[in-house]
Design a protein that fits this description.
25% of the residues lie in helices and 33% in strands. It has 121 residues and is of the alpha+beta class. It has a single domain, classed as 2-Layer Sandwich (Phosphorylase Kinase, domain 1), CATH 3.30.200.20. A hairpin with a 2-residue loop joins β4 (94-95) and β5.
């Protein structure tokens, strides 16, 4: 019993000492440029692909605290976007036939086509 308590205590100390969040494997492929916008439970940032230097908008949807309906809507977005092809609709990035999205720490990340727009001109 004492050994178990000591091991738990050591794990807590190590967790506090290494207070870094685990790296998101999807985001590690990109370099953040700037925030594009944010809403009630999501934000979109502009990123650059580290390999080919193309620009992508990455949408981050916070899934914590969503009710069942909101959660289903959030999770349905990448499923709809992966099959949607239309010149007037932003598409989701496809790499090797796989859509670019993931969930890390209750946040849904979706890599979207970046469409630059200038409203003030």
């Amino acid at each position: 019993m004492l050994v178990v308590l000591v091991l738990c205590f050591i794990n807590i100390i190590l967790a506090c000492k290494n207070n870094k969040k685990p790296k998101n494997p999807l985001l590690s492929k990109y370099k953040k440029i700037k925030e594009l916008g944010k809403g009630g439970y999501a934000r979109v940032d502009l990123y650059e692909d580290k390999k080919d230097h193309t620009k992508w908008a990455i949408k981050k949807v916070n899934l914590t605290g969503l009710d069942e309906s909101e959660y289903k809507n959030a999770m349905g977005e990448p499923l709809i976007l992966k099959d949607l092809e239309h010149p007037n609709i932003i598409s989701m990035r496809q790499i090797d036939e796989s859509p670019e999205y993931t969930i890390v720490d209750e946040v849904l990340y979706i890599v979207l086509e970046y469409a630059e727009c200038k409203f003030n001109e």
